[in-house]
Amino acid sequence: MSDAISVGAATAMSAAPFLQRRELILAMMTLGAGTFFDETDTTGTTYKTAADWLHVHDGEHVERLIRFDLDALHGEDVTETVADAWLNGFDQSPEQEHRLPAFVRTSQAWERWCADFGVRRAPFNQTAHGTLNHRQQFGTSLR
Question: What pTM was computed for the model?
Answer without folding.
Answer: 0.69
